Amino acid sequence: MGEVEGQVRSEELDAEREARRQLALAQVRQYPDPVLRLKANDVEEIDDSVTGLVERMKGLMTEARGVGLAAPQLGILRRVLVYQAGEEEPFMALVNPRVVETGGEQIADDEGCLSLGAATVIVEVERPSTIVVEATSPDGEELRIEAEGLEARVIQHELDHLDGVLIIDRTSPEQRREALAKLRPQPVLGPT
Ligand SMILES: [Zn+2]
User: Fold this and answer.
1) Taking CA 174 as the corner, what is the angle to CA 168 and CA 176, rounded to the nearest 5 degrees?
2) Which residues does the chain have with pLDDT short of 50?
3) Over the stretch 27-42, which tens digit does the pLDDT of each residue have?
4) C-alpha of residue 8 to centroid of ligand 1, in Å
5) How many structural domains are present in the chain?
6) Within a domain: residue 192?
7) Å from CA of 161 to ligand 1 middle
8) Domain assignment of residue 94, yes or no
9) Which CATH number goes with the domain that contains 32?
């Protein structure tokens, strides 16, 4: 397993997996898509559309080699997120997640985002090291998750997506500037 940085797992991929990764990434909305800035709505009722969405998100996250994905990244403004904080960790899907408490220390660490050019942009983000979240599972069960380490970081990253917040909003002005420069479309220089 490669190094995990926020939402992105960086590792050498063979050509076929890389092609699948690119296909999955093509379905993930990219900055500056305005939908990434909107607040998602609560899910009123868990029906087939929600379970179908979770399955699609799980597939895309896995193919894109991400460790987390939120519905707005697919252009769907519903409060649904998925994550898997490591290959040995369980796949998790949270509907209408809400923060009960955050704690521990503020820890700064590198994060990437599938909506910010996947591994193109890595910035340092400071977050509380522990979080308690309540949510509903896609089966309609009530969940309470006490997370720390990478899991706590991934959950907070995905929760931000549900509120239209991106890692470039949470990093230093210098890193934000560098990230935006990388994301700007490069001019194509033709013959003069
Ligand atoms: Zn992200």
Assistant:
1) 15
2) 1
3) 999 999 999 999 999 9
4) 9
5) 1
6) no
7) 7
8) yes
9) 3.90.45.10
